[in-house]
């Protein structure tokens, strides 16, 4: 009996949380107008969320690309197909690794910071204080952060892919002497703008929505204690990672499964 | 000014307010007192419309707080100032910007006039010289005074203080007591002070409500309460360690408890 009881209880809890987070998301969408009217709030958050993640994305992108270059040459050379390195590096970055890895890094760097910041604002009564000053914290605090995340991540993902391709060039062409002309021309002829690049961008837009939503909701919904905030921050990273990987599978199946 | 009728509010399974009614008189200092955990802060949140009661009404100037639309509630809140226990200052802004914040958000006044207003508010709490400090550089007492200045920024009719005296050194305490009193008189405010510091509160309050276990355990002027015949009121007002509220948390008999180990 106890098993059923606790199963029911945790299901109800999860459903209630899903409901709260959906309402939270709807009120964020309603705050879009306010955010557009106050671009300085948005710009400040674009800096906090996006610009501060810039170097992390650049460096990670470079190394991921270089590893792809090395592994690619190693595998492809057994078939004598080193000249296809460009396609392999670019396709895996643009379709998968760019959106997914940058979203995971973004959740760790910016998402956890957002949760901790909002959670701490709640714990120190700053959010209540604003409400009592007749200023809606959802509009003033949460919405600019959400839209900043939503805008930054697709840009960061594109940057990740671009730098990764350069990294692949460094490892494959400069270090392992793959022909530079083949690297670029094969890439250019095989990577399709709609099938590969646009699909990758759609993925990163969806990940941006997921990560920003999870991070801000966890902060807003956190228990206002130090243990509560630390748990919320952990949940942001863990749940974002799950959500990113699950949605990546679903989206890949939808986008590329039919071919 | 504020009338609370048949208010009931529960948190989980615990009843915090059980059908209480009370009135807060305009232009007076009304104190809400009671032991920790009796929901004094919850009462302020209910008055401010941040949480909804299970039943009962709260009327502010004849308006039912919990029946208002969000916009009307926000308009009403501009007439209320609230001082949070932690101060609730925005940590990424200087003292000056914290006080200018509600004015900038709610009015279209030019920056020069905002400056005058902010300096007036800061001068009233004696912190005009601290305007460039960040909240993290303030002592607890100073943070509360800044929060007080911010609560007054929009010239409210009423102000609510949540535990203003908790954790203050004697000097800060004296300043806060004096400020609450002088601000109430000079600005003709309606003040509500939530506190469990009997001496300081009794000094400035015009009327006191004592809350205990969801009910009003006593009410009256400080003078009346100090002569109250209720044993509970006497224990609270004179800070006695034992009385109707026992020193011991309910437990088994001490001897049986101690011997429980040997009997196993």
Query: For the largest beta sheet of chain B, what order do the strands appear in spatially?
Result: 6-7-8-3-9-10
Number of discrete helical segments of chain B: 10
Beta percentage of chain B is 15-25%
Classify the beta-strand content of chain A into a percent band: under 5%
Give me the strand/helix succession of chain B: EEEHEEHEHHHEHEHEEHHH
Q: Averaging pLDDT over every residue of chain B, what do you get?
A: 88
Query: Which regions of chain A have little confidence, pLDDT < 50, spanning 5+ residues?
Result: none
Task: Indicate the structural class of chain A.
Answer: mainly alpha
| Coarse structural class of chain B | alpha/beta
Distance between the termini of chain A: 48 Å
Would you list the SSEs of chain A in sequence order as H and E?
Answer: HHHHHHHHHH
Indicate the radius of gyration of chain B in whole angstroms.
Answer: 21 Å
Largest sheet of chain B: 6 strands, mixed
Structure summary, number of beta strands of chain B: 10
What would the average pLDDT of chain A be, to the nearest integer? 93
Question: What descriptive keywords fit this protein?
Answer:
heterodimer; A: 259 residues; mainly alpha; 10 helices; 88% helix; B: 264 residues; alpha/beta; six-stranded mixed beta sheet; four-stranded antiparallel beta sheet; 38% helix; 23% strand
């Amino acid at each position: 009996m106890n098993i059923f009881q606790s199963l029911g209880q945790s299901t109800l809890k999860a459903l209630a949380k899903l409901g709260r987070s959906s309402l939270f998301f709807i009120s964020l969408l309603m705050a879009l107008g306010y955010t557009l009217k106050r671009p300085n709030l948005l710009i400040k958050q674009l800096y906090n969320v996006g610009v501060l993640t810039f170097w992390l994305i650049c460096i990670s992108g470079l190394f991921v690309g270089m590893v792809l270059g090395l592994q690619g040459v190693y595998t492809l050379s057994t078939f004598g197909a080193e000249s296809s390195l460009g396609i392999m590096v670019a396709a895996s970055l643009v379709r998968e690794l760019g959106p997914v890895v940058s979203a995971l890094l973004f959740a760790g760097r910016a998402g956890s910071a957002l949760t901790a910041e909002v959670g701490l604002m709640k714990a120190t009564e700053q959010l209540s204080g604003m409400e009592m000053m007749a200023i809606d914290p959802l509009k003033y605090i949460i919405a600019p952060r959400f839209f900043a995340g939503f805008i930054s991540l697709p840009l960061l993902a594109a940057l990740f892919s671009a730098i990764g391709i350069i990294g692949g060039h460094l490892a494959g062409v400069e270090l392992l002497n793959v022909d530079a002309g083949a690297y670029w021309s094969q890439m250019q002829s095989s990577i399709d703008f709609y099938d590969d690049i646009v699909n990758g961008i759609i993925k990163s837009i969806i990940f941006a929505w997921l990560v920003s939503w999870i991070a801000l909701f966890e902060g807003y919904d956190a228990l206002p204690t130090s243990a509560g905030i630390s748990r919320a921050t952990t949940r942001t990273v863990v749940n974002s990672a799950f959500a990113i990987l699950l949605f990546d599978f679903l989206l890949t199946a939808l986008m590329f499964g039919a071919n | 000014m504020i009338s609370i009728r048949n208010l009931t509010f529960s948190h989980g399974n615990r009843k915090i307010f059980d059908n209480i009614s009370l009135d807060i008189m305009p232009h007076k200092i009304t104190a809400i007192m009671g032991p920790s955990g009796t929901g004094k802060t919850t009462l302020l949140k209910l008055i401010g419309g941040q949480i909804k009661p299970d039943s009962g009404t709260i009327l502010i100037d004849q308006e039912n707080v919990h029946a208002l639309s969000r916009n009307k509630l926000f308009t009403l809140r501009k007439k209320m100032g609230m001082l949070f226990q932690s101060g609730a200052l925005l940590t990424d802004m200087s003292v000056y910007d914290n006080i200018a914040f509600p004015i900038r958000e709610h009015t279209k006044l030019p920056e020069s006039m905002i400056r005058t207003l902010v300096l007036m508010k800061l001068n009233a709490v004696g912190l005009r010289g601290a305007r460039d400090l960040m909240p993290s550089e303030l002592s607890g007492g100073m943070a509360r005074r800044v929060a007080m200045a911010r609560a007054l920024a929009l010239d409210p009719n009423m102000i609510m203080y949540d535990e203003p005296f908790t954790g203050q050194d004697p000097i800060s305490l004296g300043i806060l007591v004096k400020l609450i009193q002088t601000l109430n008189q000079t600005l003709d405010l309606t003040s509500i002070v939530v506190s469990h510091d009997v001496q300081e509160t009794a000094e400035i309050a015009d009327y006191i409500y004592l809350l205990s276990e969801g009910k009003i355990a006593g009410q009256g002027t400080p003078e009346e309460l100090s002569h109250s015949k209720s044993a509970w009121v006497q224990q609270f007002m004179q800070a006695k360690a034992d009385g109707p509220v026992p020193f011991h948390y309910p437990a088994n008999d001490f001897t049986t408890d101690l011997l429980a180990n040997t009997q196993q």
